Amino acid sequence: MSQSAFEVLESGFLTTVQDSGRTGYRRFGMPLSGAMDQYALAIGNTLLGNQPDDAGLECTVMGPALRFLQPTWLSITGADCLPLLDGYPVPIWRACLAREGAALALGATTQGTRIYLTVDGGIDVPPFMGSRSTCTIVSVGGFRGRPLQPGDVVPVGGAAFPPSALPEDTVAPVPEGWQPRQHAGRTHVRVVMGPQDYYFTEEAKATFLSSAYTVTTGSNRMGYRLDGPPLKHIKGADIVSDGTPFGGIQVPGHGQPIVLMADCQTTGGYSKIACVISTDLPLLAQAKPGDKVTFSAIPAMQAHEERRGMLGEIAGLGQALAAYGRSRSSGAKRLDVKIQGQQYRVLIEPL
């Protein structure tokens, strides 16, 4: 049950509710959707003590302005946008407290493309097919199946304090030495070749792995269209339609690669020369038109190891924050209480 909310004052360029995606329904034609930069969303949630796949806001290029209707812990991750809370700078990749009535302004990205705003308890819009992610293509999920607009009041789930924060804190600490993976501005991504790399000449495969491709203005949440040296097929581009994964790289007859992204179609009939590994998809999520992208191939087993490493990093951060919070609280208990209709969060410390 939602206990708090925030109001949208300005919507930004494209602000939607996203979680880790709508899994299990692609066989029925429903896109995965979810955060383009899954790492930034997971870290933002972890900093708050949420589940890594809880719903947050994905903001593209220009973030929104919000007013918090109750005290709310929040975290801003992904691309830096010089955020201001009541006119004062807010650190990114940290948990921060917004007081009741506080106004948060997320500006234009200084590097990268996508900003993520997570809140304590997650955004509590109704799930659709097991996910709170917005799919604007078919207008389902998220907040009424659409990007946020001025005047929207978005519900937030009730939760305990972030594991490293006490009520008097306004910025929660992080474990000493911890640094997030900074994806914005990096454009080299790793791929696993296939599943139809045999449709391409050896020269085309060498060109793909040695050339720089430019992200075009035709790129969006469905796919990143790239421009660069064309890739030649042996006997044409078409295949019998098969599954199209997030990160698959299709090459139509014109020879220019298209990297399929979170809202991509579920099947397609163009040959795929390679697939971007999941650990590096956040790099592309932060790329903007005009950025250069290069590729290198790694074995599938290494891709699995990289995935396990990233998940281990996220889990390790959560465990470190929880342990630190326990050491600070010294047995204190945190309670949500309501007095005369007003919600309070109370810390009870032993004598």
Helix and strand arrangement:
Layout lengths: L1 E9 L4 E4 L19 H10 L8 E5 L4 E4 L3 E9 L3 E2 L2 E2 L5 E4 L4 E3 L5 E9 L33 E5 L30 E6 L8 H9 L2 E3 L7 E5 L10 E6 L4 E3 L7 E3 L6 E4 L1 E5 L4 H5 L6 E6 L2 H30 L3 E7 L2 E7 L3
Parallel strand pairs: 12-20
Antiparallel strand pairs: 1-4, 1-11, 2-3, 3-10, 4-9, 5-8, 5-10, 6-7, 6-9, 12-19, 13-14, 13-20, 14-17, 15-18, 16-17, 16-19, 21-22
What key phrases describe this protein's structure?
6-stranded antiparallel β-sheet, 2 domains, 22 strands, 351 residues, elongated, 4 helices, Cyclophilin, alpha+beta
Describe this structure as you would to a colleague.
The radius of gyration is 21 Å and the shape is elongated. The chain has four helices and 22 strands. It starts with a strand and ends with a strand. The model has no long low-confidence stretch (mean pLDDT 90). The chain is of the alpha+beta class. The longest helix has 30 residues. Helix 1 packs parallel to helix 4. It folds into two domains: 217 residues, no CATH class; 111 residues, Cyclophilin-like (Cyclophilin, Beta Barrel), CATH 2.40.100.10. A hairpin with a 7-residue loop joins strand 13 and strand 14. The strands form five sheets. A seven-stranded mixed β-barrel has the order 12-19-16-17-14-13-20.
Distance between the termini: 33 Å
Strand content: 25-35%
Give a short account of the largest sheet: 7 strands, mixed, barrel
Shape: elongated
Counted beta strands: 22
What's the alpha carbon Rg, rounded to whole Å? Answer: 21 Å
Question: What is the strand arrangement across the widest sheet?
Answer: 12-19-16-17-14-13-20
Uncertain residue segments: none
- Helix fraction by DSSP (H/I, runs of at least 4): 10-25%
**How many structural domains are formed by the residues?**
2
Q: How many helices in DSSP terms?
A: 4
Mean pLDDT: 90
Which structural class best describes the helix and strand composition? Answer: alpha+beta
Q: Provide the succession of SSEs.
A: EEHEEEEEEEEEEHEEEEEEEHEHEE
